[in-house]
């Protein structure tokens, strides 16, 4: 019996895998695969928007070597949406050019491959379809997505494809009564880039801290000759301001990291 290596198996599959836009006839299988793969349940409206192309772009993978009644059935998929860069959650990171108010990003919503077709490069090919599409949009500066913290296979895939992990979001997902962190990955295109290198970010942070310490020292020096009672009142007022600021920051983070 001839030996068939994994390389041979991948080569044979690659020759029969085809990629196409998702269409209305895919609705039932698309819902089924999402239900089988993801712990998160999506509303029916989401699937209707995908198959009808309402504000969502999508690609499906099919295996042309399957029997006639299955050769056009989805074995993998990717869904994405175009959003304005200035309205995105990474606007503070990419700092969209104010002179180009129409700059956009492509956000990957879902990506999946059925179990029997995994590790054959299908997910990578689907991501490349998204990147190719995003590059065709002159105003688009990046493709980005979230990955749940325990999905090591997906994290390795995105890193291998040169996506950059720019942020960790604590308690981003809420699944079956438990919170999970998320990593945010970005792939820059069409001249888009991070405004600062890691070294520049560290330098900025150090500069900011030094500036803050100098300001604090100046205030302390200015007020050192005041009476104890006045200094006590000053401390009380500062304490109130700090508590108020902390509450505002917590409230903002809760809204930003909510999974919708």
Gist of the model:
By secondary structure, this protein is of the alpha+beta class. The protein has helices at 6-14, 27-37, 44-52, 91-94, 122-135, 152-160, 198-223, 228-256; strands spanning 17-21, 57-63, 74-84, 104-113, 140-148, 164-175, 178-188.
- If helices are DSSP runs of H or I spanning 4 or more residues, what is the number of helices? 8
Mean pLDDT: 77
Query: What is the general shape?
Result: globular
Secondary-structure class: alpha+beta
Main beta sheet: 7 strands, mixed
Counted beta strands: 7
Q: Name the helicity range.
A: 40-55%
- Model regions low in confidence, pLDDT < 50 over at least 5 residues: 1-9, 199-205, 222-260
Question: What Rg do the Cα atoms give?
Answer: 25 Å
Strand content: 25-35%
The largest beta-sheet arranges its strands as: 1-2-3-4-5-7-6
From N to C, what is the helix and strand string? HEHHEEHEHEHEEHH
Q: Report the span from N to C terminus.
A: 53 Å
Give an overview of the whole structure.
- It is a single chain.
- The protein is of the alpha+beta class and 260 residues long.
- It contains eight helices and seven strands.
- A seven-stranded mixed sheet has the order 1-2-3-4-5-7-6.
- The radius of gyration is 25 Å and the shape is globular.
- The protein starts with 5 loop residues before the first helix and ends with a helix.
- Its EC number is 2.3.1.259, 2.3.1.48.
- It catalyses: L-lysyl-[protein] + acetyl-CoA = N(6)-acetyl-L-lysyl-[protein] + CoA + H(+); N-terminal L-methionyl-[transmembrane protein] + acetyl-CoA = N-terminal N(alpha)-acetyl-L-methionyl-[transmembrane protein] + CoA + H(+).
- It comes from Dillenia turbinata.
- Belongs to the acetyltransferase family. NAA60 subfamily.
- This is N-alpha-acetyltransferase 60.
């Amino acid at each position: 019996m001839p030996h068939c290596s994994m390389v041979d198996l991948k080569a044979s599959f690659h020759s029969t895998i085809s990629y196409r836009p998702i269409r209305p006839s895919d609705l039932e299988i698309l819902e089924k695969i999402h239900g089988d793969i993801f712990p998160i349940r999506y509303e029916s409206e989401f699937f209707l928007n995908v198959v009808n192309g309402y504000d969502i772009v999508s690609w499906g993978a099919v295996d042309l070597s399957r029997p006639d009644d299955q050769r056009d059935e989805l074995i993998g998929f990717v869904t994405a949406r175009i959003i304005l860069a200035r309205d995105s959650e990474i606007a503070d990171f990419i700092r969209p050019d104010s002179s180009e108010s129409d700059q956009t990003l492509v956000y990957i919503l879902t990506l999946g491959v059925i179990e029997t077709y995994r590790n054959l490069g299908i997910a990578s090919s689907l991501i490349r379809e998204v990147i190719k599409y995003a590059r065709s949009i002159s105003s688009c500066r990046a493709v980005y997505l979230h990955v749940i913290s325990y999905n090591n296979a997906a994290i390795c895939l995105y890193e291998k494809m040169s996506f950059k992990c720019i942020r960790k979001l604590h308690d981003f997902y809420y699944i079956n009564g438990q919170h999970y962190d998320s990593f945010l990955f970005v792939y820059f295109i069409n001249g888009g880039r991070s405004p600062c290198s890691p070294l520049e970010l560290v330098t900025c942070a150090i500069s900011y801290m030094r500036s803050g310490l100098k300001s604090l020292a100046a205030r302390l020096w200015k007020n050192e000759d005041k009476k104890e009672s006045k200094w006590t009142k000053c401390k009380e007022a500062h304490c109130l301001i700090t508590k108020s600021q902390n509450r505002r920051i917590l409230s903002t983070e809760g809204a930003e990291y909510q999974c919708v």
